[in-house]
Amino acid sequence: MKENVRKALAVLLSTTYILSSAGCAFLDKSKDEILDVADPYAKNLASLNISKLVKSTVKDLKDDADEWEAKLDFSEGDLYTADAATALDSIASTISYEIDEESVEADGKKGKGSIEVTFSIADYESVLEDEEIRNVEDFVSEIESAKTKDIEITLEFEKDDDNWLCSNYDDVFETLYAFTDEEYSFRVPVVEYLNGVNWFGCDWDLGDGFYTNTDYIDVDLDLDWSADDLDYSEIYYTVEYGGAEVYRADGTYIGALYTYYDGAPIDAESGHLAAGTYTITFYDVDDSVIWTGSATVYVEADPTPTPSPTPDPSASGDSSVILPGFTHYEIDESSDIYAAIDQDNSVWVDADGVEVPIGMYPAGTDTITFDLYTSEDLGPLEYRILYNDTLLATDESLVNLGYDYAYAESTDSGYVYHCVVSGSDIVSGYYVLGIYDPTSADGSLILFTFCGIQ
User: Fold this and answer.
1) Whether 298 contacts 276, CB under 8 Å
2) Is the whole-model pTM more than 0.85?
3) What is the mean pLDDT of residues 289-305?
4) Regarding beta strands 210-212 and 289-298, do their DSSP bridges make them parallel or antiparallel, or are they unpaired?
5) Rounded distance, CA 51 to CA 65, Å?
6) What is the layout of strands, in order, in the sheet containing 216-223?
7) 312-338: per-residue pLDDT in tens?
């Protein structure tokens, strides 16, 4: 009888233990707790709310919070251009989510849990690949109607006291916010604005691209300057000679090579550019070719120059003997661009911007400047400078010292272009300055003046 009592007691105790264990498992609410925190966490992920995510994430996120807040603040600044910020904001606005409640896993004793969340976002990659998109407005419009793609993410949680905190935030952020790592640059390829090219300084007897005894070659892109969205600031060009690159320059549509440029091949006897073929190639920011062409340079023995006679001003009765018979220097005074020039205030100035009386600089001057004043921004203007050692000049005696470009600077009453010439070539003598309109088909001359150094 006692034996039966002991067996019954043992069975009772065993049953009590099983029920107790089952009761503990039944009372483990970890899955419900994971479900409770997963939804607001996913919501804050979708709304890019880092400040709230910090409170529900392991403390490591506090160290990275500033970096992520800056990355997800889509405003123009150090990280993003205005266009990029607008594009990113449009993508972020398409993020939504759905939680798979059946996927929840949790272990209260180990303090570990996870759940699957499917985020939906506009398929921004396909929109970026659309070559028809030319500006950020077009991009935003396409994002609003774009197909979406799903991003499967597992949220992992760790229990900290009574709180479940996301522990794999770094992987989650990198995956969900991968769209912030793309480049959002909207610009029309420069080649689409290309009208052709303009050669300068060539041996006109031979034609475009041919030079004889030259100290420079120059071919400029003829672009559509009327286009508001033209951006050539990131283009570059290279010059190749003998199968090797000898020069490269960034951010310019002026493809030039001077003898004083580093790498320029020089003819040892004449000091001119070495004879041969020079290949000039312009590239866009994506390294696509905008234009490529070649210049051919010949080097011939320079003839012995014939000294120019010193004029007798009293014989002419005035000082207008400069450039007699230069009929090809014609100015279209009826053009709108000529009308925009302030003839009265456009003068030669010294290093301090003070007008030089009658355009005559003192001996020893190594920089001469002509300030062209205009009533409107005429865009970049090309200017060229010619030199002669005496006042009386002919086409043959003038020495071409090259060209440069001047750009409008605003003033209280309009704009000013500073046409500056300096260097070792600036010596005593007379200088003829021609200012041209590079946007015209024939590079029209808009102003013609001269100065001297005593």
Assistant:
1) no
2) no
3) 85
4) parallel
5) 8
6) 194-200, 216-223, 254-258
7) 433 333 333 333 333 345 566 777 777
